[in-house]
Amino acid sequence: MAKRRVKLRHRALAALELPLEILGDIPKITLVGDCALVENHEGIFEYGQDAVRLHTNRGLLRISGAGLVLRELGPSRVYVEGRIDALEFERRG
Amino acid sequence: MLWVLWNYLSGYVIIQVKGKGLERFLNRALESGVEIWDVRRQREPDCITASVSVAGFYALHRLTGRGECRIHILKKRGLPITLSQFRFRKALLFGWIAVLALLLSATRCIWFIEVTGCDRVQEAEVLAMLLEHSVEVGTARRDVAVSRLGEQIRSADPRIAWAGAALEGVVLTVDIREATTPVELPGEREPTSIFAACDGVITEITAYSGRPMVNVGDAVLAGDLLISGLVGTEETPVYVEARGTVNAKTPYVFSAKCGPTLEKLGPTGESCQLNSLELFDMALLPSWPYESYQLKQLERRTLKLLLPITVTSYDCCQTALQSVTASRDELSCAAREAAQEAALSELPKTARIVSNKCEIVFQKDGSALAKLTLVAEQNICQARRITLDD
Lengths: 93, 390
Prior knowledge:
The complex is a heterodimer. By secondary structure, chain A is of the alpha+beta class. Chain A has one helix at residues 2-16; strands at residues 28-32, 35-39, 44-47, 51-56, 59-73, 77-90. By secondary structure, chain B is α+β, with helices and mostly antiparallel strands. The termini of chain B are far apart. Chain A binds chain B through residues 43-49, 68-75, and chain B through 22-23, 26-27, 29-31, 33, 35-41, 48, 50.
């Protein structure tokens, strides 16, 4: 039921040619140089110097690199700074 | 940038969090709305450092769980923390307040007066005029009516055609323009001729009125006629006032003798030790006991007091003029300088030195004789009234 509702919302947005960001619950990742801004996360799963894993509604977002620092940590946004090598989603199931 | 400034103004602490379940702790902080920044994982296992506001720090204490994590303050940063340190440094705080008060009061006065455009009117005269209007160094800025000051100066002296004043900070600038001097015309024009005031070789001749009698390159002796005031023919002579300039190269010879001994400042053997105090750029010097003395710095040390006071010890040696036997070089230098001084005092101010040569001859008694030969270019005009004899 929930999946169907999400699909319906996505279709409506596509039909109205609106950006997906306005849904407000899907993660938005902005990468500028060696800084990554992750918005709409749902908490920290793991934090280390080499990897940061964040809960999102799309699964775990893994940011790999070296010397990673959480420059800013807020309820809806995380600003990660350091040498970023990869960003990947670890899907559930 | 604003965020950093706000954090500095409100104050924050750098904390170290140790223990198991650090991610859980961070998530609890996020859920509670506590802002955390600069989170760094340390090399030590299960240890992070982070920055948090003072209010956030107290909120975090409640989130440490059942002793899972321990929080320690590593550093305190920000303006409130810096200001709180002044509670124990009352003298420094008082000093800052005193300096600020002094600075504020000092900027309310005029400390420098600059006068520009002076030529015939002396700067001291302008300063005296300002003093008459109660404007001097130390006068409060608000007591000076800058807009009226220029007019007041102009009306005080007829030689000043225009005057303006501007106040920039603590500097009062007074700019004056002097009135042009009217050309003084002789009441009665007399028939005159121009004669040579001294010997020389003519380099330039300009006759405004009258008849030039010499040419460039001519050698003339003192008293020779240069520009005649007699114009016209022999039958109908016309007399005018001859005017013009005649420049000529004139030789001068000056000599001066020095030696065999020279008067020099030397130590008398009497000395005493004195100290001076220095604070920043201010120096408190002792009153030196001798009229003529030579200083030798012995020691310089800074006292470890509230203010950086430096004490300098000097050895003050009395000196007096003494007759000493001088070397040939010293004698020749002294003789040359004496000859040059004599030349400068005797030469007319308008003369331009074209060439100079100095010869030193040592006498049998050991003294040095300097012979300075100068060639100066100058105006050699000397006006004289035409008489019947001429």
